[in-house]
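Here is an idea for our session: we take a single protein and study its fold together. To get us started, please write out a protein record for me. Once you have written the record down, we can walk along the chain together.
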Amino acid sequence: MLSLPRNVWVLACTISLTMAGISLLMLVGGLIGAELAPSPSLATLPIAAFVVGMAASTIPATMILKRFGRKAGTYFGFSATLLAALCAITAVNSHNFWLMVCCGLLIGTGTAFYQQFRFAAIESLSDPSNTGPALSALMLFNIVGALIGPELGTLGRHMLSGYADYTGTFLLLIGLILLAMLIFSLFKNPIAAATNTTSSARPLKDIVRQPLFIIALISAGFGYGLMSFLMTSTPLSMHTHHGYSLADAKWVIQSHLVAMFLPSLFSGFLLKKLGEGKVMLLGGILYGVVILVAFAGQALMHYWWALVLLGVGWNFLFLSGTSLLPKTYKHEERFKAQAVNDFIVFTVQATAALSAAWVLFEFGWHTQVAIGIPLTVIIIIGATVLIKQPKNTEHKQPN
């Protein structure tokens, strides 16, 4: 991993700072919403707005990156996050709930740009076999952002006397994003790969109909969707339905977040050694175990084990889908292929997150878990199809 290009480490360091905005919003978005919302039922709308903002911004973000290049284009994402922080500062000081909702939307917009870092890292590699370790580096550094964000939330809450609570929190976020911009200035746009001048870019419909593209979507999309679907409802199921303390729910969610990213210490090397198909299969099997554990009972350790295994399974599936995707398009097709991939993946994630609470309260935890069964079966079938493909086609880009 240490032999990866400088671009990869610049991206990893940058994402460790920018992703703090997400974990910060997850901690304080609902708390601020509860203070500002005209109705308690709207308290989590800033968080929901983040999910919608990220899904809705995936295609525009990719088109901006195509138009201006990955380096210049990413500064649009930085600008969105800075504007989000300013909206939040104004919201808490003017008691304006809808500005806080705008903050969530804008953080989602910025995140759509940062999600493209994984493709920028892949394009920066001279040796495609290092795709797994490069993606692992980026995912591992997400842990830093997950830890920094909540710290900013608590450190800045009462930092500035004479101003509303959380003013300092978002001022600290501004400082963090400015530091990220400084680090990102070291990034260099990847040199365009040589292309076959006798061929032309294919229509989008031809790209998305490829079996490998569909399998990549299944791995990343279903993996992300089911993870969000169960993670979002777990604190509600634990605290509201079964009376566990908020401290217990927090422990389970924190363990889940660590489990999402910590396996990146080795999952990239598993990908390099075993290939996408087998790592995807491992992720699907882990999701199957999650369902079995969740059905087995609702004791604290059932929730803990289910969410930890869910995090590890997501890591394997998202890594496999991301690594597989570049093998489905030519260099000149990359932006439109990445755009439609991210739009579908994050729309699935947004739909899952927004529907999770409704399904839980209307039908119960076991019904929610059961919805994951057909998705897990499809993941395992897709992995099996991929494994059975000839080795020379699994690792070759289209001509």
User: Anything to note?
Assistant: The longest helix spans residues 211-241. The mean pLDDT is 89. The radius of gyration is 21 Å.
